Please model this.
Amino acid sequence: MLTSELRNLLKEILEDMKKDPETHGGPPDCILLCRLREQVLRELGFRDIFKKVKDEENAKAISLFGDVVRLNDVIEDEGKRVESLIRGIFAGNIFDLGSAQLAEVFSKDGMSFLASCQNLVPRPWVIDDLETFKVKWSKKAWKKAVIFVDNSGADIILGILPFARELLRRGTQVILAANDLPSINDVTYPELIEIMSKLKDEKGQLMGVDTSKLLIANSGNDLPVIDLTAVSQELAYLASDADLVILEGMGRGIETNLYAQFKCDSLKIGMVKHPEVAQFLGGRLYDCVFKYNEVSS
Model:
């Protein structure tokens, strides 16, 4: 019954917009459509429908975290190590229940993180600034990086956190900005705090790296996409002097902010999981976007 009611409410909204795009706060765009969907879901009592799946995937990823970090730490060449970490972000970003095709794969037999790293679509990717970024990585020392994180499980734990750990090891202050409220399988602020408490050792370190410069912030967001003009006051304050902003995931990094311009260096990174987005970009399904913009000092 609830499924039928949900379908009818969403259908009514779309019919209204066909008649007048300005209804429901239009004109319609990706952010508005996501917001309306979440509002309807919450009105009908769907609060955190993937909570059980997220908890299970977080537990699996936590058990693999040490192995993934060690595999990267033994790579002596800095350029090869950062490329391995970036590939890990893409591999982790596959865990996305907002994609119908990927949700079906997970429901059947799950995915191997290391296999996903090895099976990424070959480079050059649809947007591929990785070589430029590797050069800048070897020459620049960012003081503060803000990372807008995406999904639970392998995405945050095996993809983003090893990369954030590498930034910490280089002396960068890292702010991880997570959703305020649940949306699909995106990691939330309280969940990320819990994840970090399980990964840190008794000295507060992350596999031997000091975490005193690691902060977890509530982005104020409750969608799988993000409007950067409407983040929380806390995050706006923390990010005011950032010299690197990273938007990870298709919703935040591609669908809503691919062409966003910043006063500091920025990185948009995510996997293309919808055929329509792949077609728009002129790439392939499951292609990778790695867009780096440097601001001249």
